[in-house]
């Protein structure tokens, strides 16, 4: 039981660290069981750690979310138009991944991926992130987003259906491509994660019914708390330093990771 708790804490830390960094959380959660034969806690554990990251991002952006909510109340005369537009753009950007996630939902539960496929997806999309980061003008802010731009960002995020692509990485790639600066791209990607993770949770929850024992509950609790704490710290640190460190360290990491996996 102790070993299961430690493994759950380890996987929770992976989820919390990688969900919001452009390095693919799904790939990192799959790799321990694929490479080292450690226990796969299954879909219900995925629900717990994703719920933890969802709580973390909602808490971190609670002030922004409150403004978005108030801007959508039709009876308020002081509604902020910029907040209303941001909320609208987030809804539009969420549509593609909802559609793709619904069509390919079975892939998330059957886990028919290989180490090689994860490796190649990592390398390919890391290369795409590098090109966009180097060639984009990065002059716009979230306020300047149009519906078309938001939809394009959403289409990029939808490519995260492939393990190794990175939801955060693809959303940031799309945001950079339409001209957002790096910090604004990251913020939009994090805000966009809220409806995306929530939608994924609902899909996973309604896939099947669960019977949870006391031991299972302890594992799930460790996964939830661990991922929530690490995710909150990751968001805070990443947004503080992303302008300074850029995307190159993450690109290099993904290329090295993909190359090592291909050599195994």
**Overall pLDDT, averaged?**
86
- Secondary-structure element order, N to C: HHHHHHHHHHHH
Low-confidence stretches: none
Class from helix and strand fractions: mainly alpha
Q: Summarize the biggest pleated sheet.
A: none
What's the helix count? Answer: 12
Distance between the termini: 30 Å
Strand content: under 5%
Number of strands: 0
In total, how many domains does the architecture comprise? 1
Question: Tell me, what's the shape?
Answer: globular
Q: Helical content, roughly?
A: over 70%
Q: How many whole angstroms does the radius of gyration measure?
A: 18 Å
Description:
Helix content is about 75%, strand content about 0%. Helix 1 runs parallel beside helix 11 and helix 8 runs antiparallel to helix 9. The mean pLDDT is about 85.
Structure summary:
This protein has 264 residues and is mainly alpha-helical.
List its salient traits.
264 residues, mainly alpha
Summarize the helices and strands and which ones pair or pack.
Layout: H1 2-18, H2 25-36, H3 43-60, H4 62-71, H5 81-103, H6 105-110, H7 115-135, H8 147-158, H9 167-177, H10 182-205, H11 214-245, H12 248-263
